[in-house]
Amino acid sequence: MQKNEVPQDEALFEGMSEVCYAVDESGRYVLAESAGWEPANIANMQAWEVIRADIAAVLAKVRAGEVSPLAYHMVRHQMDAKLLAGYAGLFGWQVSRHMKPGPFRKLNPAQLERYASILKTSVAELCRVPATD
116-119 — which CB contacts under 8 Å span 24+ positions? Predict the structure, then answer.
């Protein structure tokens, strides 16, 4: 696409832009700023709706006592047990176990701090059930 044809359909970026490749007047590929592109904006909005629904579902399970607050923080950061385990230096089964309320309550302060650090939150926040979505 030509540099002057780069889409500027603003939606998710809220005043920011993304960089894409376009062809300039000389026929060379150059970087061009775009405020967004309608098909990509629609796909991104649909993806965020799914993510919000996943967060709400896990939050309901946390409030019902079915899973630990760790599960909420993981889904909020779009992590699964295997990914978090890789960052924490644990096995996936260990993180899966910590997603259960009983084992989570028994975690030592060092392990809680490790999770909190990875999830960019405090230990107190990690252990708390959020009041709202």
Answer: 118/84, 118/87, 118/88, 119/73, 119/74, 119/77
Q: How many angstroms separate the CA atoms of 7 and 119, rounded?
A: 35
Q: Round to whole Å and give the CA distance between 57 and 67.
A: 11
Tell me which residue of 117, 79, 113 sits closest to 99, measured CA to CA.
79
Rounded to whole angstroms, the Cα distance separating 81 from 95 reads 5
Whole-model pTM?
0.76
Can you tell me the distance from the alpha carbon of 114 to that of 28, in angstroms, rounded to the nearest whole number? 48
- At 23 the three-state DSSP class reads strand
Instruction: Map tokens 């059930």 to a residue.
Output: 129
How do residues 107-132 score in pLDDT, each as one tens digit?
999 999 999 999 999 999 999 987 77
